[in-house]
What does this fold into?
Amino acid sequence: MSYRVHVRVMPRAGLLDPQGQAVEHALGTLGFDEAGGVRIGRAIELRVRASSAADAEARARRMCDRLFANPVTEEYTVQVEGL
Amino acid sequence: MTQRVAVVRFPGSNCDFDTLRAAAHVGAEAYFVWHRDTDLRGADVIVLPGGFSYGDYLRAGAIARFSPIMHAVQRHAVDGGAVFGICNGFQILCEAGLLPGALVRNGGLHFVSKPVDLRVERPDTVFTSGFAAGERIRLPVSHGEGRYVADDATIAQLEGEGRVVLRYLPEAMGVEPNPNGSTRDVAGICNASGTTLGIMPHPDRAWMPSLGSTDGLRFFTSMAAWQPAVSGRP
It folds into this structure.
């Protein structure tokens, strides 16, 4: 079975995110005063061969721990959908 | 004894020749090792040079750490061999877990390329033995991801064990200060034994008068003077 996996990697809460701050500032300049708390991360999509959705998620989490995210500075979420 | 110095080249390394020439200049037997190699050919010292290995894809150093040569680098470091990571080399050492913490996007978002003023906090590592404690030096930096971060416990441990080797000077008149917002002005840290060192500034770009500064030279003369307890040679 193959699954489509969506990984979302975000800077850890509390870690200064200068990209998010710069974009938030730009939003303010454009008049979007209602916007705040901007943080910028990374989205990764991949296809994973696995025996079940849970198996696909477990495999994707191992990929996150080893490569997609740096545990010192980032946290991640994993979403699995059937193909 | 002539030191054997392996300079590891990754796709995207761009300070490899500068580093090789600086090492040769101080009398070391310096040679390149390709990232796909698995043998360090009897190196006493390994230098991971600056550059943009694998285009900094994903995170700076994140892909390079899985290069075949990194197994040998890990083994060499754990066995007490000397390892020096400069700029991208420092980022790779952190990603590989050979040094704690991480280097993230500069606080000001800009890529910073300029000379900065630094203080040598520890003169008893393989690469800083030629400096005096507290000595002030000037070296160029050239990076977009040089802001050192780590959790509070790691920072406390590094400070407690005196493992911050190089620090940017804080903002003051006449000083080129911390260029990236690095935690506690950290510019370089070492492992517990002082044999593995990672720094963001470039001594490889400041070792002869025509480069504008010779303050970087002593990192290399210190390295050349080092007597390894255990030689990596067969």
User: Anything to note?
Assistant: The interface with chain A takes residues 58-59, 62, 66, 94-95, 100-102, 104-109, 147, 149-151, 181 of chain B (CB under 8 Å).
